């Protein structure tokens, strides 16, 4: 290829990419920069911004609610992402091996993903109410009592919210993991079978190592999505009692819309966005590294 | 000949265009009034809108339902945009209201005050609530009593409980005894929607005046304004007394199981279906019970006072919530709409008859109130003899009041904080509010 041909091709590529780049600037770069600008100011949502420098960021260092929220968000994100991927693997493995009724299970395990998250949160928050909630009714029927107040202390509320979020998010991870498992050549299992490995050994020694890049990517994506999730936590507990179950998105929402302190909310959003961006890059690096 | 015909046809077309332009004024966008209202109150505000359209032929009222959370937050951007509604929903105790007024986002409603004679027709407390720097920027369209303990007459009878004849529970122990008697019958006692937050802090509104002197209480209601001296601090024993009484109610197990995770609408439904013995609600709830379960017999009581020697008063609020944005396209028509809402006739026809709302103005004839539920009529009579207290969270900006203390009181009841820590936070917020 001559130099002039390469230059021409490069120019065409830039021209072709320009609309997309402009779109990216408009819908991603500009809002992010504007968010950073708000985080560096005091603003009540109306009128001009009042420049604050790093005040909002330094104030967050002393904010106990913010520190608590980070812990809650990490626990929630880790619990949901690990739970979703583990359960997706457990459900996808037999289906990928063609268990009887696998066509039916493919649909069933994906169904919760069709339900709007807010609706799922509302349904489950009712289900966990003492007395009349479906979960407590079942427990009562089994002789374990029906007056368990699951959502009133963080010790019980957070695990319950994690379970509900796993239920709501499972479908997508299930499809991705199933797709990866079905790409593992059947000859790998046949060879392992000849060597005497049973289905469980095959799963841990053959299936999981072969789909590791997909698992890491799914895990990272689920972690990021969950850390950004607002609707399940809001529908289940509103972040309460107090701020005991307030993840960062819930805390940011309250700061912006209950207290109209957009500067502090912006600083929280920028910090959490930076951490999640880092997490995403690590995930990409890990999944690519193994592929290479 | 052809030329004359063409001229005639051209003239006819021009006339047609002019006529079309004129006749088009009936559907002119200027004749469409966009009015926001609080989600869940559709029936009342549809009634106001329909009555206004009937009284003003050619005007179309376009109603927009706004959720509570939205009205104090993201609705700000709508109100200040070029697509601002003509009548906006801005709760007067929200930081959004303060921000909008201080940034010139709302119109001065002096013309409405004059036309509707609100200086005289509003109670003094309502006029004070709506005043900001000597002007008024929002109207209240109804009054309500809240932090009222409704009880199910049949369930009380079944549990052998006699409700106090004067509607006053005298002590935490008396309320705890009622709860114990109901639980013995496998009935949940006092239902509150703790997840929603605001119902929890309603109790503070009811109890604070019973823990303070009238002078202290007045100062608590006004000291957030920079021009008022602070004579009552939130770190004083009175505020602690009210908070500790709420904690004592929680410790005495007067609330239903799992109340901190309970949604207010679900909790309403439980009482309406006869599943709970008591329900903490407002005067509007009487009409809701009648609609949901016409056969339910119910009465009302007030929470026990902090100072046993004191006599609890009903807690009242006429929260201003309707404003006209500076960018409203039809401000004159919007003013006409607000005046219409505040007329005695519409206060009765839409507010009272449709929603069971108590009038915001004091010129509605007593005979019109006869259509209210008998419990609400008793409350009105009670407020006239015993007096009415203004709710603290309904009065002070929510960054000092409701938005701040709701989660704090939840945490107090959950055992995650104590009264002293809440007092310190509220006092710090007072100082911040005054400097703003």
Automatic annotation (TrEMBL), chain A:
Topological type in the membrane: Multi-pass membrane protein
Keyword Kinase (UniProt): no
PROSITE patterns linked to this entry: ABC_TM1
Keywords: Cell membrane, Membrane, Transmembrane, Transmembrane helix, Transport
Keyword Cell membrane tagged: yes
Classification via InterPro entries: MetI-like, MetI-like_sf, UgpAE/MalFG_permease
Gene3D superfamilies listed in its UniProt record: MetI-like
Transmembrane segments: 12-33, 70-95, 107-127, 157-178, 262-284
One Pfam family in the UniProt entry: BPD_transp_1
Domain spans labelled ABC transmembrane type-1: 70-283
Locations listed in the record: Cell membrane
Protein family per UniProt: Belongs to the binding-protein-dependent transport system permease family.
Descriptive protein name: Transporter integral membrane protein
Species: Actinoplanes couchii
From TrEMBL, chain B:
InterPro entries: Bact_solute-bd_prot1, SBP
Keywords linked to the UniProt accession: Signal
Protein name: ABC transporter substrate-binding protein
One Pfam family recorded for the sequence: SBP_bac_8
Presence of the UniProt keyword Signal in the record: yes
Organism of origin: Actinoplanes couchii
Signal is among the record's keywords: yes
Signal peptide start and end residues: 1-20
